[in-house]
Amino acid sequence: MSKIKDKTTSNIISFVMLIIGTIISSLALECILIPNTILDGGVTGISIIIYKLFNIPVSLLVLILNIPFVFIGYKNLGKSFLYRTVFSMLCFSLLCFSLFLTCFENLAQFVDDILLATVFGGALYGIGVGIVIRFGGCVDGTESVAIVISKKTSLSVGQIVLFFNLIIFMIAGFIFGVDRSLYSLLTYFITSKVVDFVSTGLEQAKAAMIITDKSNELSREIYRKLGRTTTTIKGKGLISGEKDVLYCVLTRIEVYELKHIVEDMDESAFVSISDVSEIIGNHIKSTNKIRKLNKKVS
């Protein structure tokens, strides 16, 4: 009973923080970045370009343009993997994002100095997006597609996202001028750094070490839900005695789901998440063979 209550409380807090994150990011967009024609990357950047050209509300564009990205991610990455992200994106990160964008449309422009707008707009937007990502949501579906492409190529998720965004900024340069494109690029890097800071380090790869008494059950569940294999290491605690240590490398978007898997299966487990600066080999990528074996395990 206590476990259910704690999980319910955790979910409520997560949903509240998702709303707060969307409010902050919407405020930064509608009151600082958009009035100064400064773009973000991904779907939001495309939405701002279309808004400036055809005067279609950014809130509507963000909602509509994300739908195919979410669908592609769902079809390729699996239901269990994207469940919380898709749910959060549709129910909060997109609906609330669109709602709050509409609410802020009539507010006065906060900053009219282009450099201040670039720095503080990017920082404020990064805070909002970082909060959303930290609590399992997402305001831009391009990362899901980037993960799909990454699994089938030698490119990392970060390289793919950066490539998409550079194309967007180049298009913005032709339409709004080179200076706006460069300011947008600067805003993108500021936003990325702030997102990393707020989310406590969201590099493209994470390493998880799980000290547990239920290594077999956890390994199977991680493999079934995330498609990630784990390495079991025998360990010995000073007080706890013999323990199994599971080592697993995964992407940043999978960390939230991993935490829930461990919480559900072994409340006494100890989990450590660290950054991975470089990966040699294909451990981070789930191949078609793994996905087929994954179906057999489930």
Give a description of the structure.
By secondary structure, the chain is an alpha+beta fold. Helices cover 66% and strands 11% of the residues. It contains 11 helices and 4 strands, in the order ααααααααβαββαβα. It has helices at 2-33, 42-54, 58-77, 79-104, 114-134, 142-152, 157-176, 178-198, 215-226, 255-265, 288-297; strands spanning 205-212, 231-237, 241-251, 270-275. The protein has a 4-stranded antiparallel beta sheet with strand order 2-3-1-4, covered by helices on one side. Residues 286-291 have low confidence and may be disordered.
Summarize the structure in short.
By secondary structure, the chain is α+β, with helices and mostly antiparallel strands. The protein contains eleven helices and four strands, in the order H-H-H-H-H-H-H-H-E-H-E-E-H-E-H.
Uncertain runs are: 286-291
Spatial strand arrangement across the major sheet? 2-3-1-4
Based on DSSP secondary structure assignment, what is the total number of beta strands? 4
- End-to-end separation in angstroms reads 28 Å
Written as H for each helix and E for each strand, in order along the chain, the element string is HHHHHHHHEHEEHEH
Count of runs of 4 or more consecutive helical residues: 11
Q: What value does the Rg take, in angstroms?
A: 20 Å
Sheet-strand content, in percent, reads 5-15%
Q: Which bin fits the share of residues in helices?
A: 55-70%
